[in-house]
Amino acid sequence: MRFARFFCSRFSPFKMAKYNLVFVLGPPGSGKGTQCSKIVENFGYVHLSAGDLLRAERNNPGSQYGEMIEDYIKNGLIVPVEITCKLLERAMKDSGKMSFLIDGFPRNEDNLQGWNKQCGEKVNLHFVLFFDCSLETCTERILARGAAGSGRVDDNKESLKKRFDTYMNSTMPIISHYESLGLVRKLDASRSPDEIFKDVKELFSKIN
Ligand SMILES: Nc1ncnc2c1ncn2[C@@H]1O[C@H](COP(=O)(O)OP(=O)(O)O)[C@@H](O)[C@H]1O
Ligand SMILES: Nc1ccn([C@@H]2O[C@H](COP(=O)(O)OP(=O)(O)O)[C@@H](O)[C@H]2O)c(=O)n1
Ligand SMILES: [Mg+2]
């Protein structure tokens, strides 16, 4: 088995093509979704937001995880990776495409370990796009988004505090991990969307 894998990876004409990937991280409200939409328009990536996939699964009446996901999201906690990874994998496969922006993932150690185990070998990670933004600015944006009618159960002060705690305690260490691998591209996300996108564009133009 080991020999077969070695042989296939080295000599087979049917070498398995790998997915091209960029992870997008940053605090809630840093503009991950906003910038991902612009990247999709300009560079033809498929945008997969882990949060959006979880919300869709929660709304699926046939899902056994609906209530559990609702509970995690309200409390700003990170859903177990088995669920999120399965949703991401399915979305990647169903898209029929090869290049993805994975927004809001991996967000904690469980996400990172689960992903590496399940998908690590099937992907080529270009870099981790990190939107750096003060929690004050993010708070203003999220509360405005909630007041404008986002319909999200977690766009309120109480949930947001928990989301920030999770970000500081669980997501920052993941960003540091990728930083130690030289994979983080950090941008100042306190600026206007267009200003941020100028820098984003430069990074994506350099891929390939
Ligand atoms: N650079 C920016 N400046 C001001 N407001 C922004 C900026 N980027 C996004 N927003 C707004 O802030 C809110 C959060 O943005 P979003 O892209 O959903 O961030 P995230 O996915 O990181 O939570 C949205 O209402 C969005 O319109
Ligand atoms: N990898 C992930 C991403 C999101 N989530 C859950 O989904 C919520 C919303 O995530 P999101 O990415 O849509 O939120 P924003 O950072 O975009 O505001 C998180 O607070 C978590 O409860 C998760 O459990 N695991
Ligand atoms: Mg988002």
From TrEMBL:
<dbReference type="Pfam" id="PF00406">
    <property type="entry name" value="ADK"/>
</dbReference>
<feature type="binding site">
    <location>
        <position position="152"/>
    </location>
    <ligand>
        <name>a ribonucleoside 5'-phosphate</name>
    </ligand>
</feature>
<dbReference type="InterPro" id="IPR033690">
    <property type="entry name" value="Adenylat_kinase_CS"/>
</dbReference>
<feature type="binding site">
    <location>
        <position position="191"/>
    </location>
    <ligand>
        <name>ATP</name>
    </ligand>
</feature>
<feature type="binding site">
    <location>
        <begin position="104"/>
        <end position="107"/>
    </location>
    <ligand>
        <name>a ribonucleoside 5'-phosphate</name>
    </ligand>
</feature>
<feature type="binding site">
    <location>
        <position position="145"/>
    </location>
    <ligand>
        <name>ATP</name>
    </ligand>
</feature>
<feature type="region of interest" description="NMPbind">
    <location>
        <begin position="49"/>
        <end position="79"/>
    </location>
</feature>
<dbReference type="GO" id="GO:0005524">
    <property type="term" value="F:ATP binding"/>
</dbReference>
<feature type="binding site">
    <location>
        <position position="55"/>
    </location>
    <ligand>
        <name>a ribonucleoside 5'-phosphate</name>
    </ligand>
</feature>
<feature type="binding site">
    <location>
        <begin position="77"/>
        <end position="79"/>
    </location>
    <ligand>
        <name>a ribonucleoside 5'-phosphate</name>
    </ligand>
</feature>
<dbReference type="GO" id="GO:0006221">
    <property type="term" value="P:pyrimidine nucleotide biosynthetic process"/>
</dbReference>
<dbReference type="InterPro" id="IPR000850">
    <property type="entry name" value="Adenylat/UMP-CMP_kin"/>
</dbReference>
<dbReference type="InterPro" id="IPR006266">
    <property type="entry name" value="UMP_CMP_kinase"/>
</dbReference>
<feature type="binding site">
    <location>
        <begin position="29"/>
        <end position="34"/>
    </location>
    <ligand>
        <name>ATP</name>
    </ligand>
</feature>
<protein>
    <recommendedName>
        <fullName>UMP-CMP kinase</fullName>
        <ecNumber>2.7.4.14</ecNumber>
    </recommendedName>
</protein>
<dbReference type="GO" id="GO:0005634">
    <property type="term" value="C:nucleus"/>
</dbReference>
<keyword id="KW-0547">Nucleotide-binding</keyword>
<keyword id="KW-0665">Pyrimidine biosynthesis</keyword>
<keyword id="KW-0963">Cytoplasm</keyword>
<dbReference type="GO" id="GO:0036430">
    <property type="term" value="F:CMP kinase activity"/>
</dbReference>
<dbReference type="GO" id="GO:0033862">
    <property type="term" value="F:UMP kinase activity"/>
</dbReference>
<keyword id="KW-0808">Transferase</keyword>
<feature type="binding site">
    <location>
        <position position="163"/>
    </location>
    <ligand>
        <name>a ribonucleoside 5'-phosphate</name>
    </ligand>
</feature>
<comment type="similarity">
    <text>Belongs to the adenylate kinase family. UMP-CMP kinase subfamily.</text>
</comment>
<keyword id="KW-0067">ATP-binding</keyword>
<dbReference type="GO" id="GO:0005737">
    <property type="term" value="C:cytoplasm"/>
</dbReference>
<dbReference type="InterPro" id="IPR027417">
    <property type="entry name" value="P-loop_NTPase"/>
</dbReference>
<comment type="subunit">
    <text>Monomer.</text>
</comment>
<keyword id="KW-0418">Kinase</keyword>
<feature type="binding site">
    <location>
        <position position="111"/>
    </location>
    <ligand>
        <name>CMP</name>
    </ligand>
</feature>
<dbReference type="GO" id="GO:0006207">
    <property type="term" value="P:'de novo' pyrimidine nucleobase biosynthetic process"/>
</dbReference>
<dbReference type="GO" id="GO:0036431">
    <property type="term" value="F:dCMP kinase activity"/>
</dbReference>
<keyword id="KW-0539">Nucleus</keyword>
<comment type="function">
    <text>Catalyzes the phosphorylation of pyrimidine nucleoside monophosphates at the expense of ATP. Plays an important role in de novo pyrimidine nucleotide biosynthesis. Has preference for UMP and CMP as phosphate acceptors.</text>
</comment>
